[in-house]
Amino acid sequence: MEISSQLRDIFSSDVLCVSSITRTSPQSMTLSDLYKINNPDGFVITGGPDPTFKTEEWLRHVDVVVRGEREATLKDLINRLTEDPFYLKDISGISYNKNGNPEFTNPRPLLTEAELGQLPHPFYDPEVSRKIHTGTIETNRDAPIIVIFVRSLLCMEMNLEESPQDGFWKNSEGLMV
After folding, report:
1. Model's pTM, two decimal places?
2. Mind listing the domains of the chain with CATH numbers?
3. Is the dihedral of CA 166, 169, 175, 177 positive or negative?
4. I need a surface site. Which of 20, 38, 86, 98 has the fewest CB within 10 A?
5. For residue range 168-177, what is the model confidence (pLDDT) as tens digits?
6. Rounded Cα gap, residues 59 and 44, in angstroms
């Protein structure tokens, strides 16, 4: 089987960064494994909701799991990899294998509102921009608000109303959902 030029570029890179949600974790783990087979000296970093919550499982496929928000952590980690890739214990918000055992550094504080406002927006070249018709937003913040919003939409669609006493949703026959 011939490797495409895009995969060849990926497999020859020094570092592979993979973001994953639970739905895409099997494919992301397979990609990480293939990368390590084709580039044993390469370094695999992952982040996202699934690696954050299943860190030890992910560490069987990758070198580092970035837990929680990745913006500041990834910058620190990449800088460290260029200096000393074997000294990672002072980088907050990561997990990595040390002598076959998972190591967990201290959690990194969430970015402040000001820090979030300074992050650059994703860049898409003009050709890619013309082809984008939808967008994806992945977030770990404000989950209760999102859940309430989705729950409200679902209940409106199902003609349910919230009971002020117990917080459950009830249909017109009084059945709780």
Report:
1. 0.68
2. 5-113 (3.40.50.280), 142-170 (no CATH)
3. negative
4. 86
5. 444 454 444 4
6. 10
